Amino acid sequence: TADIFMTAHPEPAAAEHAVPRSAAQDHFANRRTFAIISHPDAGKTTLTEKLLYASGAIRLAGHVKARGERRRTRSDWMEIEQKRGISVTSSVMTFEQDGITFNLLDTPGHQDFSEDTYRTLTAVDSAIMVIDAARGIESQTLKLFEVCRLRDIPIITFVNKIDREARDPLELIDEIAETLALDVTPAVWPVGMGVDFKGVLDLHEKRMLGADGQPNGLSWENDEELSAHEGWMANPAYAGAVENLELAREALPAFDLESYRAGHLTPIFFGSAIKSVGVAELLAAVSRWAPPPRTQPAEPGPVTPERDQVSGFVFKVQANMDKNHRDRIAFVRLCSGTFKRGMKLKNMRLGKDITVSNPMFFFAQDRETADEAVAGDVVGIPNHGTLSVGDTLTEKDDLKFTGIPNFAPEIIRRVRLSDAMKAKQLGRALTDLAEEGVAQVFRPMIGADWLVGVVGPLQLDVLGSRIEQEYGVEIRFEAANFDSARWVASEDKAELKRFLESNRIRLAEDRYGAPVFLAPSRWELQRTEKDWPKLVFQTTRERG
Ligand code: G4P
């Protein structure tokens, strides 16, 4: 009968505000910097909120989301976000539990923002992949997963919404293993799903959690006891779960930390974000298994977190986080050293020092001055346009972090002004927004109009509405008759010069002055590539 699952539980203790940072915590080994990747609607927002709640960073579940509320505070300025019900901005949330500092980087789920998401993923050491238990792997999950794989980012899988009708756990595991070519191993196993949902088996703590996410009194020492308990086995949901789990264990590898950290194996958690089932267990797994700050690719050589000199890079620039001051914050992922407030850091792109006098940490509900930060931490640096996405900041070393690319835009539009007197404001708006990474901006070598390039159409809406609202400039986008854009480069400088001189009408400069070839069609692009074999036509370009 079902009532064995209905043990009464005390309310979870009301969590106090986040513990203050202590000296013991100020070591990079205590940092877990991660992102949640998912397809829209899989439950990323809900899970984020429940993770914050589980850590005690917020007192009331419902705080992050509270539907309209979240949207009002976080992005009032962006009507598009409200209209379309999607979240298009990235940010960071720092929270702490038991001496571990978690830096959760928010990735926009919508595909038009994959560029932004990609850059955010360059700044994390691990990821949680959220999958809707009824839908399995969806298109956006797959894309984001591929980005993680490129960088060998280890992944913990959370199969969400098992409180609803869902697919069979073994079938889901098969799909994940096959579609992603990844080993899967069970960590938290469902007992019933949908109307039969009874809770989950926490295989690490060897205990069962009821449908409310709290321990329901059942625990075991060794796995045989799971099927030996006659009272429990009389319940079909439980018996079915144990049987499935046994099958899974026979077919699947056991957990192996090295294999997980190399990105070959994903532990899988079944749970319900909305009911807080499996969420605390997920957080515990992040603190137990997820890697502390990893070595970051850079030139002339990779940077390890042990290195004394402070270094970091800007992975995101965000404007208007606080409506009262028109501010602009560069999010820097620290990669080495101990950063202290007031420190001078060199912006390698400009070759200029900046004094970081007002760095900030972003907690669930407030920002706080960051007096000290270590590798893995994310600090926000307010600035007026000196910092841009991809910039490397260092204390003394000459080095540059790599792998934070611009992508060749797939949609190119000409920007037309309604009021020709506003050309200057438009230039300012486009430069600012390009620095934030909202769109790419090109100046044609012939002609006065600006061109903008984006990867997805929604980016154009965001760009247009921000230019209008924030800079008071009315614009429209017109077809530009270009099908694709490629950065042109060559070892052979003379050949490059010849190309640039004979193709001026098809050329533009990006905002760093790098030449970009604009092809009217795929065919034309291919022909040009053939005609100029000594040139390379690149689809991505490192920033800076
Ligand atoms: P996203 O950020 O990944 O886009 O997803 P979000 O958390 O906004 O969740 C999408 C929808 O799925 C929401 O429903 C949310 O309540 C629901 N959901 C999230 N986790 C669970 C879960 O564990 N179980 C069930 N049954 N539902 C879940 P909505 O109807 O769009 O919004 P709301 O009105 O319920 O807030």
What is the fold's blueprint, element by element?
Layout: E1 31-38, H1 44-55, H2 68-75, H3 79-84, E2 92-97, E3 100-105, H4 114-121, E4 126-132, H5 139-150, E5 155-160, H6 169-180, E6 183-191, E7 199-202, E8 207-210, E9 215-219, H7 224-228, H8 230-233, H9 236-251, H10 257-261, E10 265-270, H11 279-289, E11 298-299, E12 311-319, E13 328-336, E14 338-340, E15 344-347, E16 352-355, E17 360-362, E18 367-369, E19 372-374, E20 378-382, E21 392-394, E22 400-401, E23 405-407, E24 411-417, H12 423-436, E25 440-444, E26 451-454, H13 457-471, E27 475-479, E28 484-489, H14 493-502, E29 507-509, E30 515-519, H15 522-531, E31 536-538, E32 540-542
Helix pairs in contact: 1-11, 12-13
The chain binds guanosine-5',3'-tetraphosphate (G4P).
What does this structure look like?
InterPro entries: EF-G-like_DII, EFG_III/V, G_TR_CS, P-loop_NTPase, PrfC, RF3_C, RF3_dom_3_sf, RF3_GTP-bd. It comes from Lutibaculum baratangense AMV1. This protein has 544 residues and is of the alpha+beta class. Strands 2-3-1-4-5-10-6-7-8-9 form a ten-stranded mixed beta sheet. The protein has an eight-stranded antiparallel beta sheet with strand order 27-24-26-25-29-30-28-31. It has a six-stranded antiparallel beta sheet with strand order 16-15-21-12-13-20, covered by helices on one side. Helices cover 27% and strands 28% of the residues. It starts with 30 loop residues before the first strand and ends with a strand. Residues 1-20, 61-78 and 80-90 have low confidence and may be disordered. Helix 1 (44-55) packs across helix 11 and helix 12 crosses helix 13 (457-471). The structure holds guanosine-5',3'-tetraphosphate. Residues 38, 40-46, 67, 109, 160-161, 163-164, 272-274 line the site of guanosine-5',3'-tetraphosphate.
